[in-house]
Amino acid sequence: MTNISNQTLNKSVSLPTYDRSRLKSRIVHLGFGAFHRAHQGLFTDEVALKSESDWGICEVNLFGGEALITSLREQDHLYTVAEKGAESTDVKVIGAVTESLHPELDGVGAVIEKMAEPQVAIVSMTITEKGYCADPATGRLDKNNPLVVADLAEPTAPKSALGYIVQALKVRRDRGLAPFTVMSCDNVQENGHVAKAAILEFARLQDEELGAWIEANVTFPCTMVDRIVPAATKETLDEITELIGVEDPCGIACEPFRQWVIEDNFVADRPDWSIAGAEFVADVVPYEEMKLRMLNGSHSFLAYLGYLGGYAHISDTMTDEGYRKAAFDMMMKAQAPSLNMPAGTDLEAYATLLINRFTNPSLKHQTWQIAMDGSQKIPQRMGGSLKHHLEQGSEFKWLAAGIAGWMRYVSGVDEKGSDIDVRDPMAASLREVCESHGVNVSVVPALLSIEAIFPVEIGLNPIVIDAVSSAYQSLIDNGAKATVASL
Questions:
Q1: In CATH, what number does 285-486 get?
Q2: Which 3-state string (H, E, C) describes 300-347?
Q3: Model-level pTM greater than 0.70?
């Protein structure tokens, strides 16, 4: 998409109509992935379209993605978002990105210096759960994480996002500059608190005084982000080429729905993202739990049991009445009762909206993609509601089936005997446990006893062991489709 102009692009494409030269790199974003492009990037672009905003974004990829950054530069930091509804597709060229950096291309120092520039007010992140280097069981910094060990040994040459942020804040403090806000946009419960805990602990291990300065001066707002954004495939990129008239290796497709709830807790300035539909609130937690449990929890349920049932995409599972009904019941009977929402929240309407979003045939959201990193996701997506049902003595068979589906999936072999490409930070140790038991219900208590995933009060609870064992046995005897239908 080099030489982008009204002449080269199809007429239906929406272009930035504002003067991009007024934008400054006031946000440095770590993680130029698919979700960020279709969410924060688009929101920031829309603010510039609708106001005199000068908020621009410097994009940084810390791990991999060099080719993506190179492509972004070649096309003047413009990229495409295709919002695909069931009936029609809206195509927008996003102009909010002002520059980009990558340590492999530009050096570690260039990234730190950019974050230390006086006009930078926000460092935001989409670095996935594992990017916080936190122990899932305790939420504390994992001091044995190889990235943490390396960064503490050599603070001026960081590798982790935490290391970069702490080093940039140190430079700002030493130069007498105001700090920036650290804003997590990851799909992690109380993401601001997770980021704060990891960064403060890391900083204190490096320098107690620096840790105290960060705690006193930096804010870490929680955010709740929601938009279904499948990973870009060749098919997606070919379709975008057809839609806009030129190739765009940075293009991304997503659903029309979007939501962003932000804790209004910024130490410096911030864009008025509410112009683009974001909601600033005092407490994000109820919205976060609603989304993590109802959307993400049912997504994981559909990912494991859908993959095992032979469905490649979430929308494929929705063509099966058993999966469609089970997903709705998972939301309303397993997840909704565990929530504590503001008065007037209509959870049934939300569940219906989610089912409609999952059904959108234009989105090719792979069950395999959602199934990644389950050891990091299951505690947040199912743990809280499971705890609620154990306290209440209520039914949680949908959660048990979802966990059993995950256990069957991480064995690495599907129902037809084909290999599953299991992507998970704990994949090797999970495979070891599974191989020592084979596809046998005896694996259930062994996997439930992994405290990094299941707290003792859940993992060693005989009621949980029985329920998950029963679901797992059904997967062996009857397969995923029949197990889901029986719910």
A1: 1.10.1040.10
A2: HHHHHHHHHCCCCEHHHHCCCHHHHHHHHHHHHHHHHHHCCCCCCCCH
A3: yes
